[in-house]
C-alpha cells in the first residue's frame, strides 16, 4: 500500500465560501498559507484540497489520494520574464462526453501565448490516486476498468487567462513552464514519457474534462487517473 511521502498541512475545502475582504495591498507578498488561498479563491465545491504548506514533490506516487485533487499556490503577482505557452485559453466545455475522440485535439482547446511582461498568479493542481497500482490488472487497464475519478468546481477572484496541461504529443508546455512558474523547493515530474504528468484529453475513457465559465472565473474539472497522474497549472490575471 502506498502512503503519503510528502507530509503537508491540508485545508480540505468542500463547498466553503471564503472571502475575508482583505485588500490586495494588505495581502501581498504572501508566505505559503491560507492567506494565499483567500486572496485568489472565492469558492470551492467538490473534491479539492488546498495545501497549506508547499509540498516537496509532485512526482508520481509521492503525494497521493484516491478522492482529492491537491492544489497549491506557486506565484502571486508574478511578471512573466518570457512568453508562456497556454494550452486552454478560452471559455467553454473541453470536452463534453458527446464529443468524438477524433475531435478531442490539443488544437480544439484554443492554445495561445501569454506575452512576456504579463502579470499573473499561478496555482498548481495535482491528482495522483493511491490504490490503482496496488491491484493492477492489465486487462482492466486496457479496457478502462477501475479508473479513479474526482469532480470539483472552483471560483476564482481573478479571471483565468489559461491552463497549462500538455506534457505529451511532442510538446511539454507543463514541464517548460516549471522554470518560470515553479517553486525551486518542489520536485516536479520530469519523466513525461513514463509518468505522463500532464492531462490526457484524447484517449477515450481516460479523457479529463474542463469547463471554463464565460466570465473566466469558474472552472469545473473532472480528472481520471490509473497508473499515471494528472498535473496542470491554472494561470490567473493579476491586474
Q: Can you describe what's shown?
A:
The chain is mainly beta and 239 residues long. The chain has one domain (10-237). It has 6 helices and 16 strands. The protein has helices at residues 24-27, 34-40, 138-142, 173-176, 178-181, 192-195; strands at 10-12, 16-17, 41-46, 48-51, 69-79, 84-86, 92-94, 112-114, 119-127, 148-156, 160-164, 167-168, 171-172, 209-212, 218-225, 230-237. A 6-stranded mixed sheet has the order 1-4-5-9-16-11. A 6-stranded antiparallel sheet has the order 2-3-10-15-14-7. It is globular, with a radius of gyration of 17 Å.
Task: Supply the key terms.
six-stranded antiparallel beta sheet, six-stranded mixed beta sheet, mainly beta, 6 helices, 239 residues, disordered N terminus
- Class derived from helix and strand content: mainly beta
- Tally of domains: 1
Distance between the termini: 45 Å
Q: What is the ordering of alpha helices and beta strands?
A: EEHHEEEEEEEHEEEEHHHEEE
Q: Whole-number average pLDDT?
A: 79
3D shape: globular
- Evaluate the radius of gyration: 17 Å
Amino acid at each position: 500500500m502506498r502512503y503519503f511521502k510528502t507530509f503537508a498541512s491540508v485545508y480540505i475545502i468542500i463547498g466553503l465560501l471564503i472571502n475575508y475582504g482583505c485588500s490586495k495591498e494588505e495581502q501581498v507578498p504572501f508566505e505559503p498559507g491560507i492567506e494565499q488561498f483567500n486572496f485568489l479563491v472565492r469558492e470551492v465545491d467538490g473534491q479539492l484540497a488546498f495545501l497549506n504548506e508547499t509540498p516537496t514533490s509532485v512526482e508520481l506516487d509521492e503525494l497521493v489520494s484516491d478522492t482529492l485533487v491537491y492544489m497549491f499556490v506557486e506565484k502571486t503577482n508574478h511578471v512573466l520574464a518570457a512568453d508562456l505557452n497556454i494550452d486552454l485559453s478560452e471559455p467553454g466545455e473541453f470536452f463534453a462526453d458527446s464529443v468524438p475522440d477524433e475531435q478531442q485535439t490539443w488544437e480544439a482547446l484554443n492554445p495561445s501565448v501569454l506575452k512576456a511582461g504579463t502579470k499573473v498568479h499561478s496555482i498548481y493542481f495535482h491528482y495522483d490516486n493511491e490504490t490503482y497500482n496496488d491491484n493492477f490488472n492489465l486487462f482492466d487497464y486496457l479496457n478502462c476498468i477501475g479508473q479513479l475519478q474526482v469532480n470539483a468546481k472552483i471560483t476564482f477572484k481573478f479571471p483565468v487567462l489559461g491552463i497549462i496541461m500538455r506534457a505529451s504529443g511532442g510538446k511539454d508546455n507543463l514541464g517548460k513552464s516549471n522554470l518560470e512558474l515553479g517553486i525551486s523547493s518542489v520536485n516536479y515530474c520530469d519523466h513525461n514519457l513514463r509518468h505522463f504528468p500532464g492531462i490526457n484529453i484524447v484517449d477515450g475513457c481516460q479523457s479529463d474534462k474542463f469547463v471554463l465559465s464565460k466570465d473566466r472565473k469558474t472552472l469545473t474539472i473532472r480528472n481520471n487517473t490509473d497508473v499515471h497522474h494528472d498535473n496542470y497549472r491554472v494561470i490567473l490575471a493579476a491586474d
